[in-house]
Amino acid sequence: MQLLDGKLVSEKIKQDIAAEAAEFLASNGRKPHLVAILVGHDGGSETYVASKMRNCKQVGFDSTNIRYEDDISQEELIQKIEELNQDDRIDGLIVQLPLPKHIDPEKITEAIDYRKDVDGFHPINLGRMQRNLPCFIPATPYGILLMLDHYMIQTTGMHAVVVGRSNIVGSPMSILLARNTQPGNCTVTLTHSRTKNVKEEVLRADLIIAAIGKKNFITADMVKEGAVVIDVGINREVSTLTKSGYKLYGDVDFESVAPKASYITPVPGGVGLMTIVGLLKNTLAAAKHAIYP
Ligand SMILES: Nc1nc2c(c(=O)[nH]1)N[C@@H](CN(C=O)c1ccc(C(=O)N[C@@H](CCC(=O)O)C(=O)O)cc1)CN2
Predict the structure, then answer these.
(1) Cα–Cα separations (whole angstroms), residue 2 to 204, 226, 260
(2) Which CATH number fits domain 29-113: 3.40.1190.10, 3.90.420.10, 3.40.50.10860, 2.60.40.10?
C-alpha cells in the first residue's frame, strides 16, 4: 500500500504556482486576486476560508475575505456578487458553502460571472467540463486529478465507483473520470443514498471515490484487493484530546481498508489539501485569462 500524500504533493505544486504568480506580478504589476465570501459562523467553513486566505499569501496572491452574518438576505448577497463581478481588480470569486437555509445556492452560483467562477460550480463551467472544453474544474475533483497524475496512476480502463452525488464532488468527479483523458477513461458508477446495494457496487471498483459525508462508511469488506481509495470525507467530531478541539474522520475506515488498497489518501492530509491547490490553480488561470481570453 502506498499513501497518497496530500501535504507533499500540495507543497510541491504550490511552489510551481508561486513561481508563476511571481512572473504574473512582474508582467502585470499586480498579483492574482481571490475574493471569498463567508456567510455565518460554521466552524468548518471558517477553517477552510482561513486556509484559502493563508495559502493565497503563501503563493503570492492577494486575497480578500468578505464576511456576512447569517441573516443577510439573498438579494443583498447577489447585489454584492454583481458588484464584485464588475471589479477588474478581482480575478476569482467564491462563496463558501454551505449557506444558510434561506439562501438558494443555485441562485448564488449563477450570479457569479462564470469567468471568475474559480469554484467551477457555474452551469457554464459544468457544461463545458462535460464537453471537455476549457473551463474551471471544481477544486476538489481537480485536486484529486492532480493527485492521481502526480503518482502516475493509470486510470484508463478502470472501473471507478463514486460514492455520493454532491454538486461539489461526486457529480463532477463522475463526469471527469469518464472523460477521454488521463486521469480518466474510466467506466464510472455513481452511487448515492438511493442506490440499492452500495456494498456490491463498491466491491467491483478499481478506483473508489468516497464522498458521502459519513464517518468510516467504507469498510474493508466493501473493498476489492488492490483498489485505489480516495477519501474525500471530512467528518468533524469534538475532541478534548486535540489542540484544535476537534478530530477529523474520513468516509473510509482507514485502519481496516489500507492493508487491502494499492494506494490510499489519509484524512487529514489528503484530498482536503489538494482542494486548496485546485482553487489556487483556477485563480491563477483566471488572472491570466487562460480559460476565457
Ligand atoms: N465554495 C466552496 N465551498 C466548499 C468547497 C468548495 O470547494 N468550494 N469544498 C468544501 C470544503 N473545502 C473547501 O472549501 C475544504 C475542505 C477541506 C480542506 C482541508 O484543507 N482539509 C484539511 C483539514 C483541515 C481541518 O483541520 O479541518 C485536510 O483534509 O487535511 C480545505 C477545503 C465544502 N465547501
Answers:
(1) 20, 11, 11
(2) 3.40.50.10860
